[in-house]
């Protein structure tokens, strides 16, 4: 399987989530360029989020009249995660952060799964570190790699570093595979100690299902990072090592 096919598969997984269908039903798109699939996915997301925009804007304006503690209760009991996700990008940043801090972790994880991070990036970046780590842990528990992957590019390094501590090696590989901004892979892995990267390779070596995601991950490493960790490749089983060397060639 070529790296182009792998990249397209990752985009199909994310597109299926947006459309509320299974990746298998979209398998005919595997030969479409991954960048074009990403553009299409973002267009679909924009269409969904812009539907009923005027009504959502009125709701966001009305929410200014309600104290944050009460609004948080209304969000959980009345609005629900989907509506909260639609409104999040329309409210004042400080107000959005204040309400988010008052929501229960499972509900925040539900909202995160419905949210378009591009529209609420300022709020996401200011949510307290402990809250983000707790939500990341909940999403990992749910094996919701796609949602975690959509948020990585919107979080500051100290938050990412803390979140990595609650994300296991196999989970990190799966998250990197569906990361929205693949240019962040090299930077994020640079936050890891060498021992942790060795762990990623060992996990991939032990599970053939992870070979494609880890090969995709390696294609996004900088030359500097490849040289830094090249000595670790000698520890891989011969078959996987050969595939890694072919990928990096």
Describe this structure in words.
The protein has 249 residues and is mainly α. Helices cover 69% and strands 0% of the residues. It is built from 16 helices and no strands. It has helices spanning 3-19, 34-50, 53-62, 68-88, 93-100, 105-114, 121-126, 129-141, 145-151, 157-164, 169-177, 185-189, 194-206, 211-219, 223-229, 238-248. It is globular, with a radius of gyration of 19 Å. The mean pLDDT is 90. This is DUF2336 domain-containing protein.
**Average pLDDT for all residues:** 90
Low-confidence stretches: none
Structural category: mainly alpha
What is the helical fraction, as a range of percent? 55-70%
Number of helices: 16
Overall 3D geometry?
globular
Largest sheet: none
Number of strands: 0
């Amino acid at each position: 399987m070529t790296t182009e096919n792998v990249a397209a598969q990752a985009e199909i997984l994310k597109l299926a989530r947006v459309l509320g269908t299974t990746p298998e039903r979209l398998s005919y798109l595997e030969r479409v360029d991954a960048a074009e699939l990403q553009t299409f996915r973002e267009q679909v997301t924009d269409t969904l989020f812009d539907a009923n925009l005027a009504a959502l804007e009125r709701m966001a304006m009305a929410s200014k009249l309600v104290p944050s503690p009460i609004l948080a209760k209304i969000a959980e009991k009345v609005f629900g995660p989907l509506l909260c996700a639609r409104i999040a990008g329309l409210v004042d940043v400080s107000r959005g952060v204040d309400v988010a801090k008052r929501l229960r972790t499972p509900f925040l994880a539900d909202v995160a799964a419905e949210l378009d991070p591009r529209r609420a990036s300022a709020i996401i970046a200011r949510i307290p570190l402990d809250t983000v780590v707790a939500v990341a842990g909940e999403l990992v528990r749910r094996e919701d790699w796609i949602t975690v992957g959509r948020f990585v590019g919107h979080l500051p390094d100290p938050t990412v570093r803390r979140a990595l501590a609650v994300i296991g090696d196999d989970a990190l590989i799966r998250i990197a595979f569906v990361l929205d901004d693949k240019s962040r892979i090299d930077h994020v892995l640079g936050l890891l100690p060498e021992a942790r990267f060795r762990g990623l390779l060992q996990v991939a070596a032990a599970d053939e299902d992870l070979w494609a995601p880890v090969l995709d991950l390696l294609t996004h490493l900088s030359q500097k990072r490849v040289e830094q960790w090249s000595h670790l490749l000698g520890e891989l089983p011969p078959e996987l090592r050969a595939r890694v060397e072919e990928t990096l060639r």
